[in-house]
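retry 2 of 3: previous attempt timed out while embedding CO-5-methoxybenzimidazolylcobamide. Reduced batch size to 1 and resubmitted. Inputs unchanged:
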Amino acid sequence: MAEFNALTESVIKGDIKSAVAETQKALETGQDIQSIIDDGLIRAMDDVGERFSKGQIFVPQMLRSAKTMQECMKLIQPHFKEGDVKAKGKVVIGTVKGDLHDIGKNLVSMMLEGAGFTIIDLGVDVNPEAFVEKVKETEADIMGMSALLSTTMPAMRHTIDALKEAGIRDQVKVMIGGAPVTDDFAREIKADAYAPDAGSAVIQTKKLLGLS
Ligand code: B1M
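retry 2 succeeded.
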């Protein structure tokens, strides 16, 4: 596993300048993109979450680390787009109602875009009706929902119910993810797929569309 301690530390501290410089250095020295994200950035956010749980840091510090990670992701994003980008399908994606966490959802979007899918990103705090409207309007192949709070997971079920009520549940495949979400929960709410991380989201999307 590559060492990204300086990068991880900078994200934990919320030191944007140093984190961006470390990301740039990692890219220039040809480090694996996935490893920069997993072993450098996500590792930092896990640490930040743990410190928050223990009451060692508070929301402003968590926000600062999130902003720092997002600035690093801006540098990394172009590297996702090197392959064949012929559109393979349309994905409407968003973070569910009541939930403002978007880093994971953005990462999933970037990876899917890099893999050649067209992304329609509804942002955060997306209510079920907005998902339904966009799926109808764009005739999306996949609807992706992200939730980071256990209290917002039920919104995933409500959104699937809204698809049913609109009579379009069988016209779109539903994929869900986010730290508290599990495969069991996906089965329970009758989502078509669950992905634990952004890489798996690409694999699942391809499977759902019969591309692999
Ligand atoms: Co929040 N927060 N937060 N937070 N936050 C968590 C999630 C928490 C676990 C921290 C903790 O207590 N340890 C905890 C939730 C506890 C729970 O419900 N189980 C928590 C809490 C409690 C809260 C608040 C309630 C705090 C408060 O105000 N008292 C509040 C809620 C606000 C709201 O949403 N209504 C809040 C606020 C915030 C900030 C705004 C400060 C900030 C978010 C900024 C932003 O996103 N723009 C924030 C942050 C940064 C975190 C942590 C530290 C990091 C989240 C993150 O970005 N991880 C987080 C702790 C943690 O997760 N370790 C925490 C990195 C990201 C790449 O991973 O999002 O898991 P993740 O995404 C992964 C996979 O899950 C998956 O792929 C991604 C990439 O591999 N995935 C999908 C995600 N979506 C997917 C969709 C898919 C497929 C895969 O298909 C569609």
